[in-house]
Specification:
six-stranded mixed β-sheet; 7 helices; 28 strands
Length: 481
């Protein structure tokens, strides 16, 4: 739950946003872009030169975006700095970023070229191209005298920064839920951050934050046009690949989500998109071809087609590798017939599937999941209760233990439902090659505690998974970084 002081700060911020909002001419559409970036110098020494290489790629992407009249451009999480370093190694690359609620700051005009390398570059890209720019960086803040201050006298924060069309800093958000980021600190006074443009008010959070209830509260309690989502995601199948999380979260909360991810398939990192709430993906990418892509879409208007522009390509594609969730604590039932109805239950959750397929039927299971699970080398814990139809293989005397990304079985129809204790259930359908099945071919319904995902008509695509991913936030253990 949020503290009274926390609510007060949020209310004060939204009052400020409302007064600003009244002065900004309104527009009911905008052109959005997200950049999936090949991180430079993923191996070997990482220094200022590598930072400049990454920033150069960002500047190029911004210039291309400007040619297509982009209004807001989003860059990925930790796509500038090294992904994993000690506090001592990362410190010289961190920047001080003032609080935009207290200080008006335009680093393109005022920033020091040596002290503000990253913020200056992002600010100047926004100013040069007349667009809002959202980036992610590491920032430092002196904290001597604070009870929780680290021994070196500084907090290190994983921070989203937002610059307006003039290059002025208008928002600063520190990531609440770190994921194996030992060089960084959880903010001692976490705040949800929103910012206002002429085309709406947007909230922003980062990567692992989307797993937790604060992200839901943000959308539930505040009148947001969309969510800006920088991310460095590591795909985990069968529930938590990047595009599954992005699209299903946007659908369940019926909100636009602009998701920008790092491209490094070898660690399961790829998948970005622009998602239009219940309408699903306007455009997305999830391809292990080692190419940087700029995804562009007009939001709020259907007068133009989305674009995907390759801005950089490496010669050697990296093989896609992903994590696999262990279903051994789940209730599993194998589909034996090409059509029929099956049901399985676990801990009060019952999952029921009615289906019709082509023949022959490859290895498919219906699974019910109901447990407190772990992630990040068993450092973080959260509650899941889920139903899934999944293409999987048995291995080492374990049923449904590996998850191929290719299948030939066509499901002409499916109807999957579950009686969830949580009101927050996220629907998703994947086809072969881990692509999203367009939402005009399936639908999601909530009837009391029963959540349903089903095909709308006859489908002619091989189905990889149909899932109802339930987040029982009320059963989550405390987050412990």
């Amino acid at each position: 739950m949020l503290s009274g002081g926390f609510i007060y700060l949020l209310c004060q911020f939204l009052v400020l946003s409302s007064s600003i909002d009244a002065e900004i001419p309104k527009r009911n559409w905008y052109v959005a872009a997200v950049f999936e970036h090949i991180h430079r110098s993923m191996v070997g020494p990482f220094n200022v030169s590598a930072v400049l290489d990454n920033l150069g790629a960002f500047s190029q992407a911004a210039d291309v975006a400007a040619q297509h009249d982009v209004d807001i451009l989003v860059f990925p999480e930790m796509a500038i700095l090294p992904p994993s370093q000690s506090r001592q190694q990362i410190f010289p690359l961190l920047e001080e970023v003032p609080d935009p609620e207290k200080v008006a700051w335009n680093p393109c005009l005022e920033g020091d070229e040596k002290e503000n390398v990253i913020t200056r570059n992002l600010s100047c890209s926004a100013r040069k191209n007349n667009m809002y720019v959202v980036g992610n960086l590491g920032r430092k803040e002196k904290c001597e005298g604070d009870a929780g201050c680290p021994h070196d006298g500084y907090y290190h924060f994983n921070t989203n920064v937002v610059f307006d069309r003039e290059g002025t800093l208008i928002a600063r958000y520190d990531k609440h839920h770190l994921y194996l980021e030992d060089a960084y600190n959880v903010p001692p006074h976490p705040k949800l951050i929103a910012f206002t443009t002429e085309f709406g008010t947007f909230g922003t959070f980062t990567c692992f934050d989307i797993i937790y209830y604060e992200a839901v509260e943000f959308v539930r309690d505040f009148n947001l046009t969309g969510i800006i989502y920088p991310v460095w995601w590591f795909d985990e199948r069968p529930f938590l690949s990047s595009i599954q999380v992005q699209e299903s979260w946007a659908i369940r909360h019926n909100i636009t989500l602009l998701a920008s991810n790092v491209h490094f398939p070898f660690s399961g990192s790829m998948g970005s998109g622009i998602y239009l709430g219940e309408k699903g993906a306007s455009t997305y990418t999830h391809v292990d071809d080692n190419k940087s892509r700029l995804l562009i879409a007009r939001v709020g208007s259907s007068s133009s087609q989305p674009l995907q522009i390759v801005t950089h390509s490496e010669e050697e594609p990296l093989k896609y590798r992903f994590y696999e969730f262990n279903l051994e604590n789940s209730s599993l039932i194998k589909l034996e017939e090409p059509s029929g109805q099956v049901e399985t239950c676990l801990g009060g959750l019952c999952c029921k599937l009615t289906y019709q397929t082509s023949s022959p039927l490859e290895g498919y299971y219906l699974a019910a999941v109901n447990e407190i699970r772990s992630g990040g080398r068993k450092r973080y814990f959260w509650c899941e209760e889920s139903c899934i139809l999944i293409r999987c293989n048995d291995k080492n005397n374990r049923n449904c233990s590996t998850f191929p990304i290719l299948t030939q079985t066509v499901f002409h129809s499916f109807h999957l439902e579950g009686n969830f204790s949580s009101q927050y259930v996220y629907p998703n359908v994947l086809v072969s090659y881990s692509e999203l099945l367009p939402v005009d071919e399936w639908k999601f319904d909530i009837k009391g505690q029963t959540n349903i995902v089903q095909s709308k008509g006859s489908i002619d695509r091989p189905i990889l998974s149909v899932s109802l991913y339930g987040r029982c936030y009320h059963r989550d253990p405390p987050y412990a970084p």
